[in-house]
# Entry
Amino acid sequence: MMTDTPSPDMALAPDAVLDGYRQSIDNIDAALVHMLAERFKVTQAVGRHKAEHGLPPADPGREDRQITRLRRLATDAQLDPEFSEKFLRFIIDEVIRHHARMQA
# Structure
């Protein structure tokens, strides 16, 4: 008797369309990692500058402006602005943590 449920072997069968999507995702993930690495190199320089000049590790006004700007960009790009804010907040919090550590 045949069923509509694919066998486990069929679920693992190659799918060229899916493989193409996954390759694109892998490329995008690699680009994201490289972009984050570059961003953190710059923010480390900012942290050193702040430490050398006695500036506070956090700048809440700048953070608020960045979040507002990136929420608008996310909306324009049809990306959930709530998600983009959470993602940016995570990055900002990590940068502030690094800046505070540089001043200790």
